[in-house]
Description:
Elements: E1 17-19, H1 21-27, E2 30-35, H2 45-58, E3 67-71, H3 75-86, E4 90-96, H4 101-109, E5 113-117, H5 128-139, E6 142-143, H6 151-158, H7 160-167, E7 174-178, H8 183-195, E8 200-206, H9 211-217, H10 238-241, E9 247-251, H11 253-267, H12 273-288, E10 295-300, H13 314-319
Helix pairs in contact: 2-3, 2-6, 6-8, 7-8, 11-12
Amino acid sequence: MNHRTSTxxxxxxxxxxxxxxxxxxxxxxxxxxxxxxxxxxxxxxDRAAKGMIRAAEADGRLRPGGTIIxxxxxxxxxxxxxxxxERGYRVIxxxxxxxxxxxxxxLEAMGVEIxxxxxxxxxxxxxxxxxARILAEENGWFWANQFENTANGDxxxxxxxxxxxxxxEGRIDVLVSAVGTGGTISGMSRYLKGKNPDLKVVLVDPxxxxxxxYVNEGKMESTGSSITEGIxxxxxxxxxxxxxxxxxxRIGDPEMVNMLYHLARQDALVVGTSAALNVQAAYEIARKNxxxxxxxxxxxxxxxxxxxxxxxxxxxxxxKGLVVGPVL
Length: 328
């Protein structure tokens, strides 16, 4: 028997594309979710982490024994932790102090150093993004800079997009994606539209983010707030600037939470908040086009085990005034 060995580094990507049975059957369209929670660090951000580390190693910004620092809501930090620790780097993350407890626990288990800061607007110099940049400048560390580092989006153009195209055998009508840094939607939209210019790319935004109004009206405005983590921004990042987006939709927390529980209970897909947001948007598109056999692809960004203390906690939902209702 031939035993093939691999590393965590090698195991990033090539995730399955799952047909979401309940929603596909209900709408007469095919809705697929890319199972990014099956990456070694448990999220799609492993791809961004690998792309950024690889580029920094190639151009000499990251040398053996070096230090990686990043400002992150958690998943990119976990991806950098998994891959960085494996490759012998010291990893430090600057994070807002209001994220799911499971993210901090996972980072600490790997020995990643966490610098918590209060959640503040981006303009505030205490924002986690700025704190990471300042620490990098002061100490000569490699700052991953996932928002502006285009190695993030380029890795999705190199891997995620081609994987989906192959898995769909070149038949895909709609791509649906939320935006955290813009890397995923940038890389995937560029690759897939290069293959099929008629493909529709739909951005899904939570409340409190400005991209919905930016895409549809050309101005960065937001309303409300959201319990989703790691997505939604109020600026055009260098990664997002390269995205090819046709339209944007906005989804509220009540609909997102309903879909979160529907996926868990009807399809055994226990996913995180951004994945539920993505699938809800895909479902709404499918529902408006009943029986057309559209092939709609979205991203299952991370696993729901990362959120058990929050959205899968009845007390948390009650405190937020959220009640789980039916989707279909």
